[in-house]
Amino acid sequence: MEGFFSSEGPLIGFLQKIGMLIVLSVLFLLCSFPLVTMGAAASALYYAVAKSVRRGRGYPTKEFFRAFKRNLKNGTVLTVIFGGLAALILYNREVLWQASSGEREMLSEIMAGIPDGGALTLYVVYDGMLLFLAMLAVYLFPILSRFVMKLSDIVKLSFVMSLRFFYFTILLMAGTGILLYLQWKVLPIPAILLLPGGWTYISSFLLEKVMKKYIADPRDGEDAWYLE
User: Fold this and answer.
1) Residue 57: DSSP 8-state
2) H or E stretch including 192?
3) What is the pLDDT of residue 209?
4) How far is residue 154 CA from its own chain's centroid?
5) How far apart are alpha carbons 104 and 121 in whole angstroms?
6) Beta carbons of 158 and 151 less than 8 angstroms apart
7) pLDDT tens digit string along 69-103?
8) pLDDT digits (tens, 9 = 90+) for 25-50
9) How confident is the model at residue 7 (pLDDT cuts 50, 70, 90)?
10) How far is CA 110 from the centre of its chain?
11) N or C: which end of the chain has fewer CB within 10 A?
């Protein structure tokens, strides 16, 4: 029993991990504040959690800022592209809903000329596009944190992973959706301090299994912490 409460016992180790995840969650939120840097912050969060919290390598804050600086440019570009696409689709979907419900008279007249079922078809197309973006998004920034490659190759690899490990993809999207719901609807203040880092920690058990399939054998002398 004494070992359980000792400085090297499981309880203290668990509390230390919780503390690190809270610190990393706050850093993620602060670095995501301009919105366009959210991708870089997400990649830095994943890198620090996977390396420091799970494997005990390095200092969490140091690893976070190192990864954030390294991936700032590419993470920002990916955020702008995917965030812009998602915003455009959501805007068009909202306009379609307003037209279908008669809230915009001019648009409603246009909708009247669309064949029966046309609006429903557009809804399905928009929702399918959002689903496709979500499938890619759960892999984009973990891949950015781990691999050095062109942006187009990151997108391609995200697409391949999302299909090859489809069951993992569903679990990751469902978990992220639940996190966002808890964040904004249920426990906004307590959740904001732990959920980003906590979900990143949980999801890393799936994502690490996926990414190990694409990691080359380490070179002599390389610290291959990601293969542990």
Assistant:
1) -
2) helix 188-212
3) 93
4) 14
5) 20
6) no
7) 999 999 999 999 999 999 999 988 887 777 666 55
8) 999 999 998 899 999 999 999 999 99
9) low
10) 38
11) N
In the block, residue with structure tokens 């890198």: 47
Q: Please, how many CA atoms are within 13 Å of residue 112, restricted to the half-sphere of its CB? A: 7
Stronger pLDDT, 116 or 146, i.e. the higher one: 146
Tokens of 159: 């697409």
How far apart, in Å, are the Cα atoms of 223 and each of 49, 67, 69, 220? 17, 16, 21, 9
Extract the tokens encoding 59.
């200092």
pTM, full prediction: 0.88
In angstroms, rounded to a whole number, what is the distance separating the alpha carbons of residues 116 and 114? 7
N-terminal to C-terminal alpha carbon distance within the chain:
30
* Residue 124 CA from chain centroid, whole number: 24
Q: Which residues contact 142 (CB under 8 A, 6 or more apart)?
A: 43, 46, 204, 207, 211
Pairwise pLDDT comparison (88 vs 117), residue with the higher score: 88
Distance CA 151, CA 130 (A): 20
